Amino acid sequence: xxxxxxxxxxxxxxxxxxxxxxxxxxxxxxxxxxxxxxxxxxxxxxxxxxxxxxxxxxxxxxxxxxxxxxxxxxxxxxxxxxxxxxxxxxxxxxxxxxxxxxxxxxxxxxxxxxxxxxxxxxxxxxxxxxxxxxxxxxxxxxxxxxxxxxxxxxxxxxxxxxxxxxxxxxxxxxxxxxxxxxxxxxxxxxxxxxxxxxxxxxxxxxxxxxxxxxxxxxxxxxxxxxxxxxxxxxxxxxxxxxxxxxxxxxxxxxxxxxxxxxxxxxxxxxxxxxxxxxxxxxxxxxxxxxxxxxxxxxxxxxxxxxxxxxxxxxxxxxxxxxxxxxxxxxxxxxxxxxxxxxxxxxxxxxxxxxxxxxxxxxxxxxxxxxxxxxxxxx
Length: 378
What we know:
Helix content is 83%, strand content 0%. The chain contains 16 helices and no strands. It has helices at residues 4-14, 19-48, 54-62, 66-74, 78-82, 86-109, 115-140, 152-183, 186-199, 203-218, 223-260, 268-293, 297-322, 324-350, 354-358, 362-377.
């Protein structure tokens, strides 16, 4: 989507009166960009799937329509996050997943399990979501629902760095597993993936903080106020990360084999290291969302790209010698480097010291206590 979801969140937060125009502009832009991608897919799929049956190839060709359907269903709800209507945003963004689950259940009930049925049925479910999703969004955002070409440059200037940064970010998270899949036995890879899965248990909670901080920072007009929200969010993230991380470290030796089975007991050592990596990774995620809120997606791109050669070098040095422990150490050190770069970028753009990002105060704990108290009352 060439970064249109992130761009919509940012510009809807900055200028919510024109959220409808930004949304319509992004949809038209994404649809136009999708045309050459669809054409390339149509040409390449028969060659890329030449070893598969004709039925599978045809199903894949039909599935190309996922691209424009996702534009029409997946983009519209993003301005809701920008204007901080998080409840409605969460409801609408889960609808495609519910559609997917419904298709699988239907296939199970009628005993239809072919790829062709599943893919086409999912496309149909997305098609029927277009009208209700757009209608609900239109009623909840301001501005006329019409495209304006003058917004395209701004949307792309923000969106493209966000989209491009997802590639090195994905590789920093997954390069270890890709290399292990190529050169190590599946047994070792299985142990490592269990360790990664276990360490990522706390990720959804920290991701939730990131989802909120982006539009909150972007919606402020004063850099000083943006910086205050940003720094407080990072300190609160650090408190949650350390609390949940320490708790996870304590229970890992006993709980991991209990959840996955004693066959995966050997994954405990790597999992303990990966929990530390997960803590830092969660903080990085919130730092990146804060920088996007400041309108600095290129800073995120710089940090993630800088981490990629370090990931490759550390895996080259540590993986052959130490196996899954070496891979876990490589992840930990890479995330730590990216964290340092993100903190540095954050201090540069906010003019706040690193200590204001890294060291929670008594007021931060008081703030968390009051929020939890109000949540319990609800």
